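The data layer described in this paper is built around a simple, fixed record for each protein. Because each token names a local backbone shape, the row as a whole describes the fold. We quote a single record here, exactly as it is kept in our systems:

***
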Amino acid sequence: MPEYQKLALLVSDSDRAQEAAENIFRPLTDWVSTDEADAVVVIGGDGFMLQSLHAMLDAGKILPAYGVNLGTVGFLMNKNRQPDKLLGRITRAKPHTILPLAMEADTRDGQTHRFCAINEVSLLRETRQTAKIEVSVDDKVRIKELVCDGVLLSTPAGSTAYNLSADGPILPLDSQLLALTPISAFRPRRWKGAILPDRSRVTFRVMEEDKRPVSAVADQREIRNVAEVRLEIARESELTLLFDPGHALDERIVSEQFVF
């Protein structure tokens, strides 16, 4: 198990996280900047963890991240328990690798935008008009016209987020699969989605884009008026989350399937 000698501390703007950082976490050790660190400790909730991971992706320096939940759900975080023993918990933490999606989105004005998504990329209608989207997998058209509110492609790490709310399948973390899930599909009415190997390349092409505008959202980043979106796993952008023993992400994904 790697030993992390230099730790950076990233803290959410919430009052609760800021208070805990000031009174409990900052006195624990001599924190360093992310440029010097071997790993980062993220204090907050899932949204702030995603924000922190994206910041590392953008900066080109990806560090193992240990999250302490001071947010709401905390699916990507560890429980806030025994905070005075944080350093020892990090030493014993188990690493889990997650692979984000790489999104390349062409807009109607001819621009191309590139972002990564750790949870999912979703296409959503912008107006009262339903969206019409052509769906291709590995350059083969699978659905010529999906009439819907939207459609999303989810990683295993994101399969319990928006994907689950849209009645998509929960994917084990090590499944090497992606979930392709429609959002309020009207035609084909009986299509409930698909489970794809994570080596798949998925393309969404927006039809009648002037009349039926569509936005693409990669986690927290939105691109409006897209014409075509291309997705595949970003294998060069591997991320590592650190979890306490017995509280790993794969266990949470399994247990989520037995919540009623």
Remarks:
- The longest helix spans residues 46-59.
- Residues 68 and 81 are 9 Å apart (CA to CA).
